[in-house]
Amino acid sequence: MKTVCVLQSIPEAKPGFIVILLYVAFIYGLFWGIDQCLAYLFYGITNEIIMKILNKILWIGCMFLNYKVVKHFLYLVRKQRKRPVIYPVLNISREGMNYYPENKEMEWAKISEIQIIDSVLSVTVDVNPNKDFKLNLSTTDLQKQMTQDRFEKLLKYHYKKEIYIYNTPPSCGCGC
Questions:
Q1: 134 Cβ contact partners less than 8 Å away, ≥ 6 residues apart
Q2: Are the C-beta atoms of residues 5 and 88 closer than 8 Å to each other?
Q3: Is residue 117 within 8 Å of 37, Cβ to Cβ?
Q4: Which of 40, 68, 124, 166 could form a disulfide with 113 if both were Cys (CB 3.0 to 4.6 A apart)?
Q5: How does DSSP assign 99-166, residue by residue?
Q6: Is the model's pTM score more than 0.90?
Q7: Tens digit of each residue's pLDDT (9 = 90 or more) over 25-40
Q8: How far apart are CA 8 and CA 88, in angstroms?
Q9: Are the beta carbons of 89 and 9 closer than 8 angstroms?
Q10: CA dist., res. 51 & res. 48, Å (int)
């Protein structure tokens, strides 16, 4: 297959270190606020046994929440340090299409319908429904390679049947 166009995945957006630190500062500020509210609520309790029980319960709860925050903080740091993985998603050639994530290869003649609805490419194969797939074009590097109009023209050039294309117009927010 001689390749005409290969769409690749876009790496997942990762939070920066400053965002991670602001997140941790916000969570610990929230802990402090909750502690102040609980101290105000339980200020009037004079029974020593009840105070010790409440103190232990709150201490265990704070330690559990602290454990969860540190665990999530370390997860975000590991995610930030991991190298992005870019892999091919869709290959378009003269003979047909190849959808890599599910290893589906199909010829143009066997494809019964192609739709692009709100940047979602939907390909239907009547002969073998297991080869049907949907691909969100906004999760690929399509915008870096070409415009969506050029991509539609490329599909129309190779796929001789009609392609259904629909883009929802942007809303003004008025609900009409």
A1: 120, 121, 122, 123
A2: no
A3: no
A4: 124
A5: EGGGTEEEEGGG--EEEEETTEEEEE-SS-GGG-EEEEGGGBTHHHH--HHHHHHHHHHH--S-EEEE
A6: no
A7: 888 888 788 778 877 7
A8: 4
A9: yes
A10: 5
At 23 the three-state DSSP class reads: helix
Q: How far apart are CA 65 and CA 112, in angstroms?
A: 54
Confidence of residue 163 (pLDDT cuts 50, 70, 90): confident
Buried b (16+ CB within 10 A) or exposed e, 84-108: eeeeebbbbbeebbbbbeeebebeb
Query: Mind listing the pLDDT tens digit for each residue in 102-159?
Result: 788 888 888 888 888 888 888 888 777 788 888 888 888 877 888 888 888 888 888 8
Q: Which of 124, 154, 122 lies closest to 6, judged by CA?
A: 154
- Specify whether the CB–CB gap between 155 and 163 falls below 8 A: yes
The DSSP string of 37-104 is HHHHHTTT---HHHHHHHHHHHHHHHHHHHHHHHHHHHHHHHHHHSPP---EEEEEESSEEEEGGGTE
Answer whether 75's CB lies under 8 Å from 84's CB.
no
